[in-house]
């Protein structure tokens, strides 16, 4: 594949998000505005002279109907769908790039909320029920940090990844629909806080919430299993994740109804605070 | 004679992170992560090539202030060897016991937690983020209806939980586009 040179893609801008700088170039000016709406949270536009970590090249086809090619650096990405699907893929690729290559932060695929400065982290893969449990915790009074990434800094503090909750609606055949945290009666958290509970769980119909308690080391493994940069930067992950769990109770087990479990988790946090 | 073997811990290609009672090890060659509990970590740390199995048992007895048998150390050595955390795998003396029976015997005789190594294979970025790495690629679908399972998503299903689903299916055909399931 011939690397795309600047003169083929005259339109572009650069931005930085969580320490990763990305330039986007395209052959269609209108596309830039659409892509700007897809930038990861905490993005800020950079001046063109700054060095960048990644170049995204997005090529609109000759009929101006759909995106025909899409590259991250020189690596071609699949985009055979229609225009909105291709934009969605670009959005995912931007977030994944930031999560994988952030130089000083570790991104764990997890829900994250807080009760009075005590964070609850719910790591897990897609369809494990993270967002449902995160939403239930918010409805029970927790402050919302994210339903996609728990971000930890070098001291093990949790930072927000502010985005709407992506809830799977039965009426939409299980497709994810973005809903603001305010719709769940909650608000977005902003300040860095420490985790007091790591809840490793997935939904199973009629399951009783009887979690086992894991050690801190086992808790790190559970977070690592959902850490985007686990293979790219294991040194950073192993430096930060133990600090992330140092004050936390680690619980693992299947769960049934999210509403009931969220109340149990809140109780555990209160009890843990008393006996800490 | 076999208790005089001198195991050597592997260090090359490993990232090691100590925690208060456990040790985390990441193997850069295999992308496997291990968590050694206190007992396993104590055995591993004393595998310096100069300590025999019996020496290590004596060191641990001193450290834990409770009797530690050679069998206890062999349990750890066996696990550490399987997880490629030793320079060379050692063979425990044959005593006719299965590993489960040996563990039970050691557990009954020990006041110290059995040596345990918990392990996992680290995910790729796409797997961790639950991103369907082939989302957006053309595929063959199981039916002609949107939402069908993709029979073929190019390459592997890396990152997908379950199968990729099909959408944007061309009318009258079963050709569609992979999407996140």
How are the SSEs placed, and which strands pair?
The complex is a heterodimer of chains A (276) and B (181).
Chain A: E1 11-17, E2 20-26, H1 29-36, E3 43-46, E4 54-60, E5 67-72, E6 75-76, H2 83-101, E7 106-115, E8 118-123, H3 130-139, E9 143-146, E10 149-152, E11 158-159, E12 165-168, E13 176-179, E14 194-200, E15 212-214, H4 216-224, H5 234-245, E16 249-252, H6 258-275
Parallel strand pairs in A: 2-4, 8-14, 14-16
Antiparallel strand pairs in A: 1-2, 1-3, 4-5, 5-6, 7-8, 7-9, 7-10, 10-11, 12-13, 15-16
Helix pairs in contact in A: 3-6, 4-5
Chain B: E1 14-18, E2 23-27, E3 32-36, H1 38-45, H2 53-64, H3 70-82, H4 99-109, E4 117-121, H5 125-128, E5 138-141, E6 150-152, E7 165-167, E8 175-179
Antiparallel strand pairs in B: 1-2, 2-3, 3-4, 5-6, 5-8, 7-8
Helix pairs in contact in B: 1-3, 2-3
Q: What does it look like?
A:
- The complex is a heterodimer of chains A (276) and B (181).
- In chain A, strands 7, 8, 9, 10, 11, 14, 15 and 16 form an eight-stranded mixed β-sheet that branches.
- In chain A, a hairpin with a 7-residue loop joins strand 12 and strand 13.
- Chain A has two domains: 6-101, no CATH class; 106-275, Phosphoenolpyruvate Carboxykinase, domain 3 (Alpha-Beta Complex).
- Chain A is an alpha+beta fold.
- Chain A is built from six helices and 16 strands.
- Chain A is globular and about 60 Å long.
- Chain B has two domains: 2-121, Outer Surface Protein A, domain 3, CATH 3.90.930.60; 124-181, no CATH class.
- Chain B is 27% helix and 19% strand.
- Chain B is built from five helices and eight strands; from the N terminus they run βββααααβαββββ.
- Chain B has helices spanning 38-45, 53-64, 70-82, 99-109, 125-128; strands spanning 14-18, 23-27, 32-36, 117-121, 138-141, 150-152, 165-167, 175-179.
- In chain B, the strands form two sheets. Chain B has a four-stranded antiparallel β-sheet with strand order 1-2-3-4. Chain B has a four-stranded antiparallel β-sheet with strand order 6-5-8-7, with no helix packed on it.
- The A-B interface holds A 77-82, 85-86, 89, 92, 95-96, 99-100, 108-109, 125-127, 173, 215-218, 220-221, 224-232, 234-235, 237-239, 242 and B 15, 17, 19-24, 26, 28, 31, 33, 35-37, 118-120, 122-131, 134-138, 147, 154, 161-162, 167-168, 177-181.
């Amino acid at each position: 594949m011939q690397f795309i040179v600047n003169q083929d893609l005259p339109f572009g801008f650069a931005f930085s998000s969580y320490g990763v700088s990305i330039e986007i170039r395209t052959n269609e000016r209108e596309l830039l505005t659409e892509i700007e709406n897809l930038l990861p949270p905490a993005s800020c536009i950079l001046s063109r002279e700054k060095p960048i970590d990644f170049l995204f090249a997005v090529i609109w086809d000759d009929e101006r109907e759909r995106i025909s090619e899409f590259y991250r650096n020189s690596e071609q990405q699949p985009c055979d769908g229609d225009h909105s699907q291709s934009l969605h893929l670009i959005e995912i690729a931007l977030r994944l790039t930031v999560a994988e290559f952030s130089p000083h932060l570790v991104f764990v695929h997890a829900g994250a909320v807080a009760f009075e400065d005590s964070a609850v982290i719910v790591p897990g893969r897609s369809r494990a029920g993270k967002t449902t449990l995160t939403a239930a915790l918010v409805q029970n009074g927790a402050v919302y940090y994210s339903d996609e990434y728990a971000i930890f800094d070098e001291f093990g503090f949790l930072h927000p990844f502010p985005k709407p909750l992506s809830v799977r609606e039965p009426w939409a055949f299980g497709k994810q629909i973005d809903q603001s945290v305010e719709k769940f009666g909650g608000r977005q958290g902003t300040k860095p806080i420490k985790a007091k509970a790591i809840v490793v769980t997935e939904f199973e119909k009629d399951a009783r919430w009887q979690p086992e308690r894991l050690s801190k080391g086992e808790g790190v493994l559970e977070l690592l299993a959902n850490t985007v940069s686990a293979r790219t930067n294991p040194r950073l992950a192993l430096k930060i994740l133990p600090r992330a769990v140092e004050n936390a109770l680690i619980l693992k087990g299947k769960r049934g109804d999210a509403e009931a479990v969220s109340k149990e988790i809140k109780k555990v946090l209160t009890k843990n605070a008393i006996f800490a | 004679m076999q208790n005089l073997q001198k195991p050597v811990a592997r260090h090359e290609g490993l990232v090691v992170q100590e925690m208060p009672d456990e040790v985390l090890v990441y193997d850069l060659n295999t992308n496997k992560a291990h968590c050694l509990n206190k007992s396993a970590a104590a055995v591993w740390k004393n595998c310096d090539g100069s300590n025999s199995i019996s020496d290590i048992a004596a060191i641990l007895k001193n450290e834990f202030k409770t009797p530690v048998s050679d069998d206890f150390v062999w349990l750890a050595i066996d696990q550490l060897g399987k997880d490629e955390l030793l320079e060379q795998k050692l063979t425990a003396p044959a005593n006719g016991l299965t590993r489960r029976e040996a563990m039970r015997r050691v557990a009954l005789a020990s006041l110290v937690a059995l040596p345990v190594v918990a392990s996992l294979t680290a995910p790729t970025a796409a797997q961790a983020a639950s991103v369907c790495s082939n989302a957006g690629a053309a595929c063959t679908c199981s039916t002609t209806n949107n939402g069908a399972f993709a029979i073929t998503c190019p390459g592997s299903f890396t990152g997908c939980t379950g199968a990729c689903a099909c959408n944007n299916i061309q009318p009258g055909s079963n050709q569609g586009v992979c999407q996140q399931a």
